[in-house]
Amino acid sequence: MSSPTDTAHGGTPRAPAPYMNPYLAGIGLGLVLLASYLAMGRGLGASGAFSSACAVVVGAVAPAHAAGNSFWQDYLQAGVGHPLKEWLVFEVLGVLAGGFLSGVIARRVRSVVEKGPRISTGGRFALALVGGALMGIGAKLARGCTSGQALSGGAVLSAGSWAFMLMVFAGAYGAAWFLRRQWR
Amino acid sequence: MNLPLFKFGAFGDEASLLVAFLIGIGFGFFLEQAGFGSARKLTGQFYFQDMAVFRVMFTAIVTALLGLFYLGWAGVVDLSMVYVSNTYLVPQIVGGLLLGVGFTIGGYCPGTSVVALATGKLDALVFVAGIFLGILAIGMAWPGLEGFASSTDLGRLTLPEVLHLPFGAVVFLVVLMALGGFWGAGALERRFADRDPADRGEEPS
After folding, report:
1. Is residue A16 a part of any domain in this protein?
2. Contact (CB, 8 A) for B51 and B120
C-alpha cells in the first residue's frame, strides 16, 4: 500500500503524479454523469449505497425493528432480488475500483492519515467520525448527498438540489473558522 | 436513437448493475484524478486556498447540463424520462447545512470518502464508519422524523419553473454563473494564498 517517495538514496523519483487540471477533471466527471443520464435516465449517487448496506445489517441483527420501520423497509425492498443487488451499491463498488485504479496510476495509493499539521491522529479520527455521522444524517434528511443532490440534481436543474447545494457551501464555510486549527 | 437506453428497454435490471459498476469506475477515476481523495485538498475550498471543489463540480454540472440540453433539443434523449428527484425544500435546506458542517468537520463527503478509502486514507475509513453511525441513528429515529422529512413537498420542481424562464435561458444563466465563479475563484485564491498551499498528494507533515 506504500510507495517510496524519498529520493535521498538516489534512484528514480517516485513522487505522486500531480492532480489533473480541475476543468479537465470536471469535464470528465460531467461526461460520466451525462453517460449515466443517457444510459439509465438517472444520475450518480453515493449515500444511498451506505443506506442499503446499513439496512441489511439492521435487518439481520434486529429483524423485528427493521420490519416495523419504513426507512429500513424502503432499502430492504429495493434491489434486483436482494437489497444489495441495487444500482447505487454497484455504482459505489465501481467508485471504489475507479478511485483505486486512478490512485495506482498516479502512485497515490498509500496507507496514511490525512490531517492538518496541528492536530493529533486521535483528534483527526474523532472529527472524522463526527463529520461522517453528520453527513449520514444530513444526506438522509435531504434525500441525497453531494453526488446525488448537488451534482446530479444540479445538472437537471432541480430546485431542491440547488437549494441544497447553496446550503452545503453555507454550512461548510460557516464551520470553517471554528475548524481552522484542524486543517491549516 | 431512443435515450435513456434503460427506459426504452435496451437492457434489463441485471445488466443495469453492470452499467452501474462501469459508470462508478468513471466517477471514482475522475474524483481521484481531481485530488478529491485528499481531505486537505477538499477542505482547501472552505479556506479559499484551493477552489478545486467549485471548479470541478461546476464544470461537471455545466458539461452534463449542456449535453442534456442539446441532446434533448435534437430529440435524441427524451428529457421527460430523465429522473428529477422531488423537492422537499425545508428538509433539504436543513440536510444541506448539516452536510456542509459535516464536510468541514470530517473532510469528505460520502462519494469522496469512498475514493479516499480506495487510496488508503485511514481517516476516510473512520469517516465511513461515521456515515454508518449517522444513518443508523436517523433510521432508528425515522418514525419521529418522517413527518419533517416529508414536509414542504413541492414535487418535481425545476429552476425554469421557479424562475418562469425557458429551459435554454436558465442553461445560459448557469453557464454565465459558472464562468463568473471560475474567474472569482482565481481571484479569491490569490488573495488568500498567504499560507501553505494544498498538498499534491505528499504525506502530510
Report:
1. no
2. no
Torsion, CA B111, CA B113, CA B114, CA B116, rounded to 10: 130
Percent above pLDDT 90 for chain B: 92
Instruction: Give B 17-76 residues with CB within 8 A of chain A.
Output: 17-35, 37-41, 43, 45-47, 49, 52, 55-65, 67-68, 71
- Average of pLDDT values for A21-45? 98
Q: Name the residue among A133, A171, A47 with its Cα closest to residue B141.
A: A133
Sort out which chain A residues have CB atoms less than 8 A from B159's CB and list them: 157-159, 162
Domain residues for the domain of A59 are 21-110
In a shared domain, residues A79 and A124 = no
Cβ pair A132:B129 closer than 8 A: yes
Query: Residues B159-172: pLDDT tens digits?
Result: 999 999 999 999 99
The band of A169, judged by pLDDT with boundaries at 50, 70 and 90, is very high
Domains in chain B, number: 2
Please give the radius of gyration of chain B, using alpha carbons only, rounded to the nearest integer.
20
Both A99 and A123 in a single domain?
no
* Partner-chain residue, chosen from A39, A116, A158, that has the shortest CB–CB distance to B84: A158
Domain that holds residue B74: 1-78+169-194
ipTM of the complex as predicted: 0.93
Same domain, A126 and A146: yes
CA–CA dist B71, B65 (Å, integer) = 10
